[in-house]
Amino acid sequence: MSADSQLFGVSRKITILMLVLSWIIWTAITTFQIILWVILLSHQDYKPYKTILGIGLCFDVALMIWGIASNICLTVAVAKENTKTHFSLVAVYICYKITIFIIHVGTLMFLTTQLHMTFIAGLPIFLFNVFCITYFFRYFFYLKRKAIEESSRLGRTIRAIFDPDEASIDRGSRPSGNLEF
Question: Which residues are listed as membrane-spanning (predicted)?
Fold first, then answer.
């Protein structure tokens, strides 16, 4: 385990476990939502509300598509964490999770006034989202720091190749000889 991964509390095994759990929970929730939408749209009591249900369905499908895209981004970032742009892919996943978290909090606050059991039923998913957001924030900053270190190493190498005097100044020693202006 590197010093950076210890600093940010990031482990490769935990990251892969979180990735797998994220896919499993996303699949379970999406399957449940699709079944719920089919039941709602086919039920006779909800026929007058078809327009509202249709808008809700479109919004939910958009969230499902964003969810699969963000999980794919996270999978790519975890699979190849050594490139410079993968912290941006983790940022896409974090934005998705924060959006779901906000929607979940709003829904729970509304529904707990109506049905207090909804809060208890949704609590495990709510807590998983909180844990996911905090863990992948740490993972994001770990990847970002790693990318900055890689780019600064690359910059020093390029400067050393094209301008040896500049590279020696970077190391703290001055080039010998008279400098004329």
Answer: 16-40, 52-78, 90-111, 117-137
